[in-house]
Amino acid sequence: QVQLVETGGGLVQAGDSLRLSCAASGRTFNTNAMGWFRQAPGKEREFLGGISWSLGTTYIADSVKGRFTISRDNAKNTMYLQMISLKPEDTGVYYCAADQVHTGVIVDTPRGYDYWGQGTQVTVSS
Length: 126
Description:
Elements (H helix, E strand, L loop, with lengths): L1 E6 L2 E4 L4 E9 L6 E7 L6 E7 L5 E3 L7 E6 L4 E6 L8 E8 L15 E2 L3 E6 L1
Parallel strand pairs: 2-11
Antiparallel strand pairs: 1-3, 3-8, 4-5, 4-9, 5-6, 7-8, 9-10, 9-11
């Protein structure tokens, strides 16, 4: 089992920056990749990007490329989502997830992930 806890959400204004953290614990040594998703009210969960846990390589979705970056601190078992130039449409619940099945790839769909955090709310006011 892997436990994931997201922190760092909050209410910000358009144009602000925010960094989310995802702390992993438990049987994390089997993790191939981790991803960030968000879900706005009434919408499907959207893939934002992911990181290979061993290599540190990242993949950022086109919808947020140039504004969002992902990094990780292996020693702390923590993944980060740095967001800049936030827009009201970035509002939603942000989730991190861990994939312990798919080797060598960063999966961009929710069903590719085995473990999920509880989510943290990000609200961007105009």
